[in-house]
# Entry
Amino acid sequence: MASIFELIIAGDIPADIVYRDEEVVAFRDIKPVAPVHVLIVPTKPIPTTDDVSDADLPLIGRMYAVARDIARSEGIADDGYRLVMNCRDHGGQEVAHLHLHLIGGRRLGPMVGGEAAD
# Structure
């Protein structure tokens, strides 16, 4: 079954696309945590960070370059931004398709708050 990100990439579900090429699609998160919250998604379906192969390394670099370029075009590069890639349940991953969160546009709080559960 296709993930929601695969459906967005295919154009079957609408999204606010900010960038697209053959390898990467970037679109605004529907539940933003900051004024700028963009998801950078590879067109190749890779379920998690743990599933990235050595052959995928150029693709991962491409995702980060796209994030950099979007941060610049959104006007948040000079003040700073956060890039987050969650992995699986304990890492907070909600969609089983690799994605990079670009978050910025305001001062961000600590990465992880509170104490870890036992």
